[in-house]
Every structure is written in C-alpha cells, then in structure tokens.
Amino acid sequence: MGEYSLLIILFAPFFGAIALMFVPRQEAILVRMTAAISAGISLLASFYIFLAYDTTKGGFQFVQRYVWSEELGIAFYLGVDGIGGPLVFASAILLFAGIFVSWHIKDRTKEFYMFLLILAAATIGVFMSLDLFFLYFFYEMSVLPMYLLLGVWGSHTKGYLSMTDPEERKLRDSIGFIFNFGSNSKEYAAMKLTLFLSAGAVVALMGILLIYHLSGLHTFDIVVLREQAHFSDNVATLIWFLIFFGFASIAPIWPLHSWSPVGHAAAPAATSMLHAGVLMKLGHFSIIRVAFEILPDSTREWMWVAAVLCIFSIIYGGLVSYFAKDTKYVIGYSSSSHMGYIFLGMAALSYISLSGAVIYMFAHALATSMLFAMAGWVYDQTHSRDIPSLGGLVEKMPFIAGAFIVGCMASIGMPGTINFIAEIMIIVGSWDKYPFQVVVAVLGIVLTLAYMFKMMRGLFYGKLDPEHAHATDARHWVDRMPLLLLIVCSITLGIFPGHFYEVVRSTVEPMIDRINHVTPLITQNTQGLLP
Amino acid sequence: MTFQLALSAADLLLLLPEIFLTLWLCLILSLDFSLKRMTHQQLAYLSIAGLAVTGLILLGFDQAGTTGALFKNMFVLDRMAIFFKLMIVGATTLVLFMSIDYVQDFRFFRGEYYVMVVMSALGMMFMASSNDLLSVFVTLEFSTFGFYVLVAYLRDDQRSSEAGLKFFILGVFAAGLLAYGISLVYGETGTLIFSEMTGTSGSYGLAIGYILIFAALGFKIGAVPFHAWIPDTYQGAPTPVTAFLSIAPKAAALAILIRMFYVSLASFKPMWVLLFVVASIFSMTYGNIVAIAQKNIKRLLAYSGIAQIGNIMIGLAAGTKQGSDAIMFFLLTYLFANLGAFAVIIAVSRVLKSDEIEDYNGLNRRSPFLAAAMLLFLLSLAGVPPLAGFIGKIYLFIAAMKEELYTLLIVGLINIVISMYYYLIVVKKMYINEPTDSSPIPASMPIKVAVYVGIAGTVLLGVYPGPFIDWAVSATLMFSNIAGPTAAASLLPGG
Fold it and tell me: How far is the C-alpha of A517 from the C-alpha of A496, rounded, in Å?
C-alpha cells in the first residue's frame, strides 16, 4: 500500500469531486461529509509519506510511473522528494482545514466543494509530478477552479483605492493601479487572477517546450532531463528566464504580484487559505523543480535577479500591508511580502538558505491560512473587513482572538513556531552572499510585527461597535478543529523540527552541490537522486 | 484516353460504406414520401441507424486493415480516409440527435431535413477519399450542395435566408476559384492525380493554381482571409446545421488539404509552410480578438471556430507526419467540445428562444447539468487541462516546436490567453450572474444523449488520449517519409 500512497493522495480529492456529482444537492451534510472524507484520506496518506520519507536515501521516493503517450514522450510519473513531500502534506492539511472552514457555505455547496477539491488535487499534482508535461497539466488545472471559486463564492472589495490610500497618501499598487480599471468587483478580481496566471503559465510552457525540443531528447521526464539535457549558454539563459518569470508570476514576485492581493481579498476564506497557502508556492516549487534541476548552470548565473526583486517584494508588500485597512488586504500583501523571503532563500543558493526557504513555504502555508480562516470568520460574523470600523471583538469571540494572536505570532516568526526556524535559516544562510537583502529582510520582520499588531488591535481590542454585538465565537468543534489543526501542526513542528529538517536536507544538499559545482554535473552525487 | 470501368467485387467492397449509405438515403426519402404516418422522429432514428451501420462497416475496415484505390487512384481508401470518415459519420450522428427537437418546430419539410444532412455527410465521406483534383471538385460541390439548402432551411426567417444567400454566393465563388485553380494546375502538370504530381518543377501557373485551390479550401474551413461568410451564416442557419457546419466540412476539407500539400507539393514544402504560418497567425489572432466583442453565442462560437482553424493550421505549417497526426487528434477533440456546446445552445434556445449571451445569466441555477456541460466544453475549447482541447493544443505545439516555428508558437500561446477571456465571460454569465427568471431549463432525451457523448469524449480524450493518439499516428503512416524543411525547392521558376 505504501508505494501507492501518492496515487491515493492525488486521486482521493478527485474521486471525492466525482462522487459529489452524484450526491443530491439537498443533502448538505452528506455533501460536506463526502468532501471531508476524501480530504481526510488524502491527509492521512500525505502524513504517512511525510513520516515514511527515507531521509538517508533521499531523492525521489514513492515513485509511480505509467507511460501515457509513447509518441509524445509523456509518462504519468509521480514521486516526491524532500521538497515536494512537505508541500504535499501542507496542501492536504489546508484542504482538510479549508473544508471545515467553509462548513457554513449555503449557496451551491456541492459545486463549491467540487471546485475546492479539484483545486487542491491539482496543486497536490504539481508537487508530485516528475514529468514536465504533468507539472504543467496540473499547474494550469489549478488556475481555473480559482476563477469560479472567487467569482461565485467570493465577495466584492469596497473602495479598493481608498483602502490603500489613506489621507491622500499616494501609496498605490503600482501595476495593479494601471490594470485596475476602477473595478473592485469579485468578477474583476477573478478574471484578473485567471488571465495573469494563464499568461504566466503560457510563458513557462514556452520554456518547457524549448526544453523538450532543444535538449534533443524529446521527453518530458524530469529525471532524464536533469541527467542528460545540455543547452548552449544563450539558449539556457533564455529558457531559464522563461521558466523563472513564467512561474514567478504565481509566486508572486514584484512586479507581477498585483493579481494576488485583489484575488485574496475577493476569495472566500477556504480559497484564500489554499491560494496563499499552497497555490502561490507552486511558483517557487516549479522554479526549483524545473530551473534548479534542469538548468543548474543558469540558475547559478542568474538567480541574483530573484535576490534583487525580493527586496521590492518584502518592503513594498510590508508597507502596503501597514497602510491597508482591509483585513484580507493586510494578510494578502503580507503574503506577497513574505514570498520575498522564500525568493531570498532560493537566490542565496546556500544549503541552509534553500532549506530555510523550503521550510518557510510550509510554515507560511500554515500561518497565513490560519489568518485567512479567522479573517473569514470575522467577516462572516460582522460582514465587514474594514479594520477601522471593527474593534473590541475579543469580548465576543475570545477563542478566535486567541487563535488570531497565535497566527500573528507564527506569521512574525516567534520562536516555538516553525516559521521561526525557517526565517532564521534564510537569514543566516543568505548573509554571506546578500548582506543587504538580509538587512532588508530583518526590517521586513519588524514591519510584519507592526502591521500584524496593528491589525490585531484594530480587530479585537478597543471599543466594540454596537452594530457587531451579535457576533459570536467559534463554539462548535467543526469551527474550532481546523484552526486547532493548523496551530498544532505549526507548533509541533516548531518544537520538533528534526524529521522535517532531515527530509528537506536530504534533497536540498545534493541539489545545491550540483548547482554550485562548475565541473561536469553528471558525475556529481547522483546515486541518491535517482529513484 | 480510354477509361475502362472494370470493377470487381473486391473493388466494390471498398465503396461499401458509401454504397450502403446511398441506398439507405433512398430508403429514407421514399419512406418519407410514401408513408405519411411516419413521424420525423422515426425517420431521424432510421437515419441514425443507417449512419451507425456505416460507422460499423468503417470500424470493421479499420480493424481488418482494408485499404485500396479505385478509379485510377481517384478514390483511395487508406486508414486516414477511414479516420476522417468515421469522424464525419460520428459528427453527423450527433447532429441528428441534436436536430430531433429542433426539427419538431419546423412547419414543413421535416423528413427532407434528415435526407439533406445525410446526403451532405455522404459527400464529405467521398471528400475524405478523394485523391485527385477532379474528384476534389466534384465531392466538394456534392457536399456543399446539401448545405446550401440546409443553411436557408428556416425559409420564413430572414436571417436564415440571408445566411443562405451569403453562403451560396461566396460558396459558388469559391467553387469558381477551385475550378480555375484546378485548370491551371492541370495545364502545368498534365495530371490531376496528387501522387503523380510530385516530380513537377515549379512555375508561376502552378503557384497561382495552388493558391487558388488553397483559397477555395480555405473558404471551406473558414481560415482568414476567407472567413467572411462564417459569422452571419453561423448565426442565421438553424443551430444544428451550424453545429454540423462547424466541424464536418472542416474535417473533410482538411483531409484534402493534408493529402494535397503532403503528397503533391511535398517538394515545395518551405513555400507552403510560410503560407500556412501566415494564415494560421491571422486566423488565430483575428478570430480570438473579434470573438471578445460578440454578444451572440453562435457568433462567438463562429469566431472561436476561426481561431481554432488557426490552431489546426499550426499542424499544417509544421508539415510533418506529426503535424497531420496532431491535426487529426485536435479535430477529434474539437468535434466533441464544439458539438457538445452547440447541443447545449439548442437546449437553451428552445426554452429562451434566443441565442444572446446575456440570456445565459444564471444558467447554473436554472439547469446545473447544462451549465456544467457548457463549462466543460468551453474550457476544452480554451485548452484547459484535463480536458481534450488541452492535449490537442499541446500536440500541435509540439509538432510546431519540432519544426522550430517559434513565431507561430509564440502567437499561438498568446492566443490561448486571449481566448480564455471570452470563454470565461460566458462562464461568468452562467455561474456568477444571477438569472432574471429562475424557471428551470429542461433538456430532452436526444439532446442529453448528444451532451453526454460530448462530455464523455471531452473528458476521455483529455485524461486518456494514448489510444487515440496512437490511432492518429497509425492512420498516417504513409507520410512517415515526408520531406523535411531542408529539401528546398521553389514553387516559382528561378526563385
């Protein structure tokens, strides 16, 4: 059963979605239970692969390979390494939590869960694909459900500009402002997100097709390509840029980020959780999987681009978060900002920093999704996301307020949460190569502290608006369980990071060796890398 | 030249599907006239049964590996012809299923409708087999003849009459071009059979002749700049006819294009590659950009069809065996998605009496089934995994990539994003907007059959395309030694 776990993780949500088609839509409980059970199966299996990953062996494990089309050189090839494994686990946690967070959705529940399951399954598919074709297949597949999830079950953003532009300060979303034709609707946000990500995907697809053809191998198999693909310098650089910017648009790196906060703000809570938690990591992950594995020389040569752009991401996202007045904007931009840390960790190309980046992806997924879940709860109770008009909610919802504090602490990187370990590793690992960026990153942490506290105070302390007197706490286990699950995961791994660290190390170490060695790559430490 | 018509029984066997369908056609026609008690539904199911038998015969040929040529190579039955014929028979069957409801609303000529549809299908089956310029001309006109009638079938409807007239005038004009082109080519080469033209040297007459033939076939498939008739005809024609028009003649004309360019013009490949690259770029870009502005769903699909033909011509531009395989696979995916989409349109317009995109507001609330089906079909047309259209597009792109047609690829990829926009607009209306009237929209049994077949094809070809790709690959084995781009020969003298 062990070797089929990846298939179980991937197909449980898909079959859940198919099963939902046959569940009558009046049976709301049955619909929810079907979704929850399929996500639960996925979660258990992904927990198993996370634990059972053999850290002494490293490389791709739990490999499954089925020839899909001989003619085109495509195989349905699954496997996880120390980077994909934890991210699969994170996706499964968020899906499971997300299903419970959206337990109270009344409108077209069945369709909502179907699209949510497809979205999560597609992201999981990216994290375990060892075939470029299927990586793209699942990547593109994860974009489309977002359109409907945002468009149908999302909410409008009131006064986009007024929220980021208090007191006539000209602080506006640079690219977003250009593309924002004065619309704050969820339809606009959904369309912008979909087109932006599809455009990015298409750029990456060009890169993938170039790899396919110019390597002369006419295969999409990543394991074969990383061993045998060689490109001339110019071609490799071109492909590297296509891959990097194609996938970085979902990550999202500044200046390609503008779809993301708008999308976060419009999305329903569970979608925001998956979106910020794992969908954005598809970008980093795909860059690592494609650019780092197949084009190690170009990565070494050009990864400084990410180090430059991440400065803007960190500072800019942090500043906008500080001034934004919409809870989801604050969290959305903070995610944008925190993605900069991951890019910094990746750019430094040291073994500690890259491990830190991978752990940060996981940590950020947990922390941000907690915050989004609670922002969603507050919105459901008060129908407001406007921080100045809220306040004093701690009396009404002590549990949510307490959990919110934990979420903020995790987001800031308090010791005890897994975020702390990740941040320290990124900062320490990048210091040698990019001291300036490290200073920026530390400033970014201070900024995070500032806006998180500001938001927390604005929401939960101060005077309670009588209009919100009817707001209630999360009392039922259904509402508390997802938050507790996320908190427990974050803190447990923060205190006992040993296994997690070993899992990541087993993959990152040979990868960094390979990138940093100028000598022929084929002889380098490949024993452990092949399945 | 004496023409001996010596046909053995074995030769006649090659014509069995066509002969059977012709006899069946006569049977339906005489039943329609003689048995007044026969309802048009019974005639429809009788036609479907005939097509099903034809399809089974073709499948039998495919399994048995029956191939051959008749009438001095004018008619060939190879596996590619069988592939296209099966596609045409399949499309016609689906169209008949969609028509049953629609024909109910006709006040007269109900039975003849089915006869006309099957007759066009018969013409197109001959097209898929034609291997010589003369048979191209005859079969093309034979199949178009049925369409001239079908497009103008709603004779009290002004739009339908207008559509019929436009289609007729432009169609006849295209036929003239075709005849002129054929005469020029015959004058230069002295032969009409594709496979005998391979060794000819280039000349202006030949070049002009082939461009004229390309224009006539471009009219059939609706490639820019020969697309002008498409939007009005699609909008005005009865919707099942539009559905039929959107796939079957295109498939048949593509079979001819592939044969003609791959066989008779193989040595001039660099020249026609350029022709297809340009036509493809313009078709994709024009179709997709103009589609954004459409308010009528049939017009939207008309322009999207122009764009899809642009995609298909990527395969012709590649000019390799893989290119033609990709075209055939893409046509299969297009068949299911496009016919499915038209089936949904018929179901919706029967209730709403309108084809405006506005009227699709809140379709998800009024009929979750139809909305979900339409969602799948549109996303397949847009090329979203895991649906068939995605695999089709990737296949075409891979074929183009192997020929290093970078400009074409970049334009094609950009067009994916553009097309996503207008397909999503329809999705938005169906799912996000609220309906003005929330009464449910029922779908009748025959329509449901067409929709289910469309869904099954769209999903199956998307997640498990292997056998279908292999089928396409094995159907075009005769192109495996087609000249590469290095075999440069100029179609023009001294060029």
Answer: 33
Find the CB nearest A151 among B384, B431, B465. Answer: B431
Neighbours of B36 (CB within 10 A): 7
pLDDT in the model for residue A167: 42
Domain with B205 in it: 12-264
Q: Which of A133, A144, A203, A205 to mutate to test the interface with B (most CBs of B within 10 A)?
A: A144
Residue A131 pairs in a beta bridge with A221
Indicate the residue among B221, B245, B264 that finishes a domain: B264
B96 and B115 co-located in one domain? yes
Site of tokens 């198919």: A18
What is the structure's pLDDT at B8? Answer: 75
- Model confidence band, residue A181 (pLDDT cutoffs 50, 70, 90): very low
Taking an 8 Å cut-off on Cβ atoms, the answer to whether A213 and B397 are in contact is no
In this predicted model, what pLDDT tens digit does every residue of B205-214 receive, in sequence order?
888 988 999 9
Question: Cβ contact (<8 Å) for A206 and B409?
Answer: yes
Of the candidates A130, A152, A427, which has an alpha carbon nearest to the alpha carbon of residue A271? A152
Find, among A75, A59, A118, the residue nearest to A505 by Cα: A59
- Specify whether B79 is located in the same domain as B41: yes
Does B488 map to a domain?
no
Would you state the pLDDT for residue A166?
43
Residues 6+ apart with CB under 8 A from A148: A111, A115, A190, B427, B431, B432
The B-side interface with A (CB below 8 A) comprises 322, 325, 364, 368, 379, 384-386, 390, 394-395, 397-398, 401-402, 404, 409-410, 413-414, 416-417, 420-421, 424, 427-428, 431-432, 465-466, 469-470, 473
CB contact under 8 A, B364 and A108: yes
Residues A101 and A478: their CA atoms lie apart, in Å, by 8
Q: If you measure CA to CA, which chain A residue comes closest to B387?
A: A141
pLDDT exceeds 80 at position A169: no
Is A121 within 8 Å of A46 (Cβ atoms)? no
d(CA A295, CA A264): 32
CB contact under 8 A, A72 and B420: no
Strand partners, B77: B68
Interface residue A131 vs chain B (CB under 8 A): no
Judgement on whether residues B336 and B479 belong to the same structural domain of the protein: yes
pLDDT at A177 over 60: no
The answer to whether the Cβ–Cβ distance between B431 and A140 falls below 8 Å is no
Beta bridge partners of A65: A77
Residue recorded with tokens 């419970």: A100
B380 with B447, same domain: the answer is yes
Domains in chain A: boundaries: 2-516
So what's the ipTM on this one?
0.90
Say yes or no: B176 and B247 in one domain: yes
Which of B325, B413, B424 lies nearest to residue A202, judging by beta carbons? B413
Most confident of A83-87, A265-269, A392-396: A83-87
pLDDT tens-digit readout, B50-103? 999 999 999 998 888 888 888 777 888 888 999 999 999 999 999 999 998 888
Mean pLDDT of successive 10-residue stretches along chain B, which has 495 residues? 65 87 91 80 89 92 83 84 93 92 80 89 92 90 90 86 90 92 89 78 84 91 89 91 92 91 81 90 93 91 94 91 92 94 92 87 89 94 91 93 91 92 90 86 90 94 91 84 50 50
How many residue contacts between A and B have a Cβ separation below 8 Å?
84
For residues B397 and B306, state if they share a domain.
yes
- Of B207, B237, B264, the one marking the end of a domain is B264
Q: Are residues B246 and B330 in the same domain?
A: no
How far, in Å, CA of A280 to CA of B45, rounded? Answer: 52
Residue B103: the pLDDT is: 85
B325 and B442 part of one domain: yes
Q: Which residue in A69, A141, A151 is closest to B465 by CB distance?
A: A69
